[in-house]
Amino acid sequence: MTALIELTNVSRRYRSGDETVVALDTVDLTIAAGEMVAIVGASGSGKSTLMNILGCLDQPSSGSYRVDGHETARLAPDELARLRRDHFGFIFQRYHLMPDLSAAGNVEMPAIYAGMNAGTRGERARSLLDRLGLADRLHHRPGQLSGGQQQRVSIARALMNGGHVILADEPTGALDSKSGETVLTILRDLHREGHTIIIVTHDASVAAHADRIIEILDGRIVADRRKAQMDGPVAAGAPSLTRLAGVSRLRHRIGEALPMAFRSMAAHRVRTFLTMLGIIIGVAAVVAVVGLGEGSRQKVLAQVNDLGVSTIGIYPGQDWGDERASRIHTLTPEDATALAAQPYIDSVSPVLATSGTARRGNVLVNAEINGVGESYFQVNNLKLGRGRFFDRHGVAERSQLAVIDDNTRRRLFADDPNPIGKIILVQQVPMVVSGILAPRRASEAGRNLQIFLPYTTVMGRLSGPASSLNGLAVRVSDSVDTRLAEGAVASLLTRRHGTKDFFIFNSDQLRKTFENTSRSMTLLITSVAAIALIVGGIGVMNIMLVSVTERTKEIGLRMAVGARRIDIMLQFQIEALAICLAGAALGIGLALAAGSGIGSRDGEFPMIFTGASIVIASASAITVGLVFGYLPARNAARLDPVDALSRE
Ligand code: ADP
Ligand code: MG
C-alpha cells in the first residue's frame, strides 16, 4: 500500500509564557490509503494536536508531514485550504454545525467553497443525509436535532466534497452509547467503501472498531498494533464534482456570500440599523444637498435667462462698488441715443434709480423709483399687465406718468380694482398711473416695490437738475453676438467719454458669478456630508470587527471545510458592502421623501434630484463599504484555523 500520510520526526511545541509545552515529540507515523486507524491516549497526551496537523489545520514546529507525497510545509495557505477542502473531512466532538443553517445547508457548505453549483450541491446533500437516515430532517436546524443526529449531519458534511480521509476527533465523546454505536457503524461502512478513517479517542471500546490502534502518551507514540485484517478496503471512489471556473466561479462566490451577509444582518437587526445610521445620514445629506443646490441653481438661472443673454448693463466706474462711481457724470442720455443708432443694438434705455416714497391717500410706502426710457421695458423683457407703458413723447415731455409693478399695486390700491388713471404721489410729486406690470412668477416675486417713471421726469421733477445716469440698459440685436457687441459698445463709449470710466456687465457674468458661489456652497456641504460618510464608515468597521470576533468559531469552521482566505475575506467584505448599500438606499429614500415634503410647500426650496447625485451617493457608499470593510475582512481572513476553531 502507498503511504497516503507520512509524518517524519514531527514535533509540535506550544509556547505559553516562558514555558514551552511539547505536545508532540518526534513522532514518526505512516498511514496508508484505506486504513481505519484509532489514535488513543489519555487527555492531554497530544491527540488533538496530532489530528490538527494531519488535517492541515496546524503545522508541525519541526519535522516533515507529507500528504500523498506533497510536503505540507511548502504549501501556501490557500493550497492547504484546497487540501482540506478536497481530501479531508472533519468530524468534531461537538459537531461544530452552524446554528443558523438547516441540516442540508450545513452539509452543503464545503461544496460552496469547492464551487459546486447549487443544484448539484442540494442533490448531493439530500442523498448523503438520506443515506445517514436523516431524509426527514433536511430543513431542521441543529438546535432541533439530537446529538446523534447532529453528528450524522457533520459526517454528511465531511463526505460532501469526497472526504477521502475522514478525521474524527472524539466523534462519540458527546453521544450516548447507542448514538455512538451508530456513528461508529457509519464510519466502518465508509471504511469499507474505501475512505481512510482516522479516529481520535480516549475510549478503548471505540478504538476497538479500528483495524489499527496507535497509542500516544505525552506526545510520543508508545504502541502501534494492527489487528488481523478485518475487511479490506474497496478501491477509493472519488466523487465526481461539477466545478465552475473563472469568472462564473467568482460570481458564484458572491452569490453565496450575499445570502450569508443578509442572514447575519437579519440576525442583528437593531445593531445593523444603528450601524447603517451613519451611512443613511451621510447619503441623505449628499443627495439632499446636491438636490437643493441644483434646485436653487436652476431657479436663479431661470431668472437670469428671463433677462436674456443679450441684455447688458453699462455702469460708471471700474466695477461694482467703485467709490468714484458717484463722481463720474459722463454717462448721459446722449450716450443712450448714440448707442441706439448703432445697427447691432436693439434698444437702449437710460436708468436713473433711487429709492423714495410713494403715497396714495393715507398709504405711504417706500419704493424703488426707476427713471427709465421708453425702451426700458423692451430691454428687460417686462410684460404689461394692464394699461400702457409711457412712450417716446411721454419721455420727451417729462410727463408725470408712472408704471408700477404688481407689488406696488397691491400696497397702494388694495381697495381699488382699477388703478389706471389714478394719481399717486411719488416723492410728493403727483403721477398718473398709466400701466401695471404683469405679476412676476411666485418663485421670484421679491418684496420690493418698483415704480417706473420717465427718466426725464425723475431728473427734472424729482431729484433736481442732474444730467448723469446710474447706468444704461442695453439689449443687443438677436442676430448679433453679445460679446462682439460689448466690444463695440465699449469702444464707442470710450471714444465719446475720452476715457474708459464705465464697466459693462451682462447676464452671462451674472450667471457665472452665481454658478461659482453655488459651486463653492455645494463643495462645502458635500465635504460635510463626506465627513458624515467617513464617520458612518468607521461605525461599520467597528461593528464588523465585533462581528468577526463573535464569529471566530464560524470562521474557523469554514476554514476547516476548505474556505480559502479570499473566501472569508469576500464574505465579510460583502457584508460591509451590503450594510453600506442598504444604508445608501435608505438614505436616498429619506432624501427623496424630504425633497417631496419641502419641495411641494411653495417652491421656495425646490429640490431637483439628478441621477448623478444618486449615483455619486451610491458610489461613495460602495467606497465606504470597501474601505472600511477591508480591515475587518482581512482580520477574519488571517485567523489561524486551529485558534479560531477552539475559540468558545
Ligand atoms: P488531547 O487532545 O490528547 O487531550 P491536546 O493535543 O489537546 O491533547 O494537547 C496536548 C498538550 O498540548 C496539552 O498539554 C495541552 O495543554 C497542550 N496544548 C494544546 N493546545 C495548546 C495551545 N494552543 N497552547 C498551549 N498548549 C496547548
Ligand atoms: Mg483532544
Automatic annotation (TrEMBL):
Membrane topology summary: Multi-pass membrane protein
A GO molecular function held by the record: ATP hydrolysis activity
Gene3D superfamilies tied to this protein: P-loop containing nucleotide triphosphate hydrolases
InterPro entries given in the database record: AAA+_ATPase, ABC3_permease_C, ABC_transporter-like_ATP-bd, ABC_transporter-like_CS, MacB-like_ATP-bd, MacB_PCD, Macrolide_Exporter_MacB, P-loop_NTPase
Top-level taxon: Bacteria
GO-annotated cellular components: membrane protein complex; plasma membrane
Transmembrane regions: 273-293, 521-548, 574-595, 607-631
Record keywords, A-Z: Antibiotic resistance, ATP-binding, Cell inner membrane, Cell membrane, Membrane, Nucleotide-binding, Translocase, Transmembrane, Transmembrane helix, Transport
SMART domains xrefs: AAA
Main location: membrane
PROSITE patterns: ABC_TRANSPORTER_1 (PS00211), ABC_TRANSPORTER_2 (PS50893)
Annotated localization: Cell inner membrane
Biological process according to GO: response to antibiotic
Ranges of residues in domain ABC transporter: 5-243
Matching PANTHER family: MACROLIDE EXPORT ATP-BINDING_PERMEASE PROTEIN MACB, MEMBRANE COMPONENT OF TRANSPORTER-RELATED
Annotated family: Belongs to the ABC transporter superfamily. Macrolide exporter (TC 3.A.1.122) family.
Annotated protein name in UniProt: Pyoverdine export ATP-binding/permease protein PvdT
Organism of provenance: Phyllobacterium myrsinacearum
